[in-house]
Amino acid sequence: MRRIERYDVSSIERPTRADLERLARRRLDARRRGSELVLTGVGERLRLLLAVTGLEEVFLMDGGSSGGEPDDAPEPEGLSDPGAEGLPVELLPKPGG
For residue range 32-51, what is the model confidence (pLDDT) as tens digits? Predict the structure, then answer.
């Protein structure tokens, strides 16, 4: 079982490419340590940017607070359904397409 490392991103209000690069680097470092990186405090703009870039399938996100220890946290959930996360309807796939 992999150890979970939580990373609070609530301070990222206007995400940039540099933020995405930093998150990707942090995820890679965690994986090298045998851990899974879980983003907490993900704001709407960052969530949208991750969806637009296709990175929502790479990062695990948790809606809970970042204050708890990783071992006592609920299992993180990936963003496989963008509609469940409140993304604009324009970004949802069209039926049959």
Answer: 999 999 999 999 999 999 99
Distance CA 97, CA 31 (A): 34
pLDDT band (50, 70, 90) for residue 22: very high
Helix axis angle, 44-53 to 17-32, nearest 10°: 80
Calculate the dihedral angle through the C-alpha atoms of 57, 21, 37, 69, rounding to the nearest 10 degrees: -130
Phi, psi of 40 (to 5 degrees): -120, 155
Give yes or no for a contact between 8 and 38, defined as CB atoms under 8 angstroms apart: no
> CA 11 to CA 43: how far, in whole Å?
9
Token pair, residue 1, equals 């079982």
DSSP state of 16: -
